[in-house]
Amino acid sequence: MKFLCLIVLLFSLWGCEKKNDGVLPQPKQGSEQASTNHGSQQALEKVHYFGSVTTIEDQYVPLLHTNVMVKTSDQSLVDAMEFQLEGYHALFDQFNYYYESNSQGSGPVVKNLKVVNDCWKVGEPVEVDPRLTQLLEESLELMAVTQGYFNIFINPLLDAYEGKFSAFPIENTDPSPAQIEAALEAVLPLESVEAHLHLDSAKGTIEFLSWAPDENRSINLGAVAKGYIAGQLQKAFPDQKYLLNLGSSTIVANGGNYRIGLSSPHHRNLPLLRIGLPSGMSLSTSSSSQNYYILADDSQTIRCHLLDPFTGYSKDCYWSVTVISSNPMVADALSTALYNVEDRGLAMTIIEDAREVFQCSVEVCFVQNLSATILPPEDSASSPTTGKLGLLMTEGFASYVEGTDTGMGIESIEILENQLL
Asked: How would you class 120 by CB atoms within 10 Å of its CB: exposed for 0-12, middle for 13-18, buried for 19 or more?
């Protein structure tokens, strides 16, 4: 049976700060703190967990639909970040409606992504917050850079798999070929966007063209919004010291260097890599670790939520893809896009194009399973399993790796650029 690795981004302090792979002691909730010297002054850093946001139906939704936390010694920064995070959550949520300023009971409703998708269904233009049009424009540019492997119109495919993925190793069946074909026809490709969608940044409007009542069109920003938000918070708080963690998949360091640990696929409590994340840099990981199923008639095939917008199925060539970049939004989107890019030449092209178009650093590490079978991850630190893993990384990514530990099953480490000579 095929089981998936839990790729967890654990964080702790690194002298002047770095990452935690599980080899370093893990602080417990409520006591996650460290002292850092700044001249003669000592600042106590603690991990602060953010709560939920209230919808107009008085439902409590986890912030960004995930676990969000920040490590800092500045309580005023925590409060300011929480206010901004709540605003971004309400703006980019495709599932719920919110009152402005997170008010309860009455008031204007935020013209968010759900409102936009509702307007698309009836073919009406809508005026929205400039930040939403900005993210949509950036997302379309990312679709072009990734040659369509990142696609914000993938909801029809996700709908076809509704209810199939699990956080636990269960067996399930694929949607029927007819369902996959119908879903792929509804996924809007990049070359068709201009014929269906017009963004006017000057007016702050979104207009829907060539609209048909039977079209199942909608926008999904789940693979890019956290990165965009992290980047905006970096701009809003450039001088403070913190480590921001959005869902354990997007992490940003600011004002200091931190150590991040990527857990081994074969052991939940041990790190595969120790990575030093410098100030101003972000790290994003996509993996088949929490939303997946084992194909019922093929126990060696895993399907996960990272679906290929061209085939309708997720590929099974990587355990995970981790991107380190000076642009959190690019890191977020590329970790998703590259998960289904098996061709090494194409992967390098996408990486180089992203660097050029967005004028940022981009370094990537692919974790590959080299075992004949996939072993379940162990919970006990005393008996790690010994599955075989291969690491394929860009030359620049290697410079962030502080080390690996014996017994992690790493059989090979390859540099992507060298493979293309």
From this structure: buried
Picking from 264, 287, 299, 307, the residue whose alpha carbon sits closest to that of residue 170 is 299
The sign one gets for the Cα dihedral 314, 316, 318, 320 is positive
Rounded distance, CA 52 to CA 57, Å?
14
- The amino acid sitting at 169 is P
30's tokens: 């409520």
Cross-strand partners of 378: 267
Question: Which residue do the tokens 């099953």 mark?
Answer: 409
Per-residue model confidence as pLDDT tens digits over 194-245 = 999 999 888 889 988 877 766 778 999 999 999 999 999 999 999 999 999 9
Instruction: Count how many Cα atoms sit within 13 Å of the Cα of residue 259 in the half-sphere of its side chain.
Output: 22
SS3 92: helix
* Residues making up the chain, counted from first to last: 421
Two structure tokens written together for 135: 């993210």
Which residue from 2, 66, 67, 75 is spatially nearest to 29, judged by alpha carbons? 67
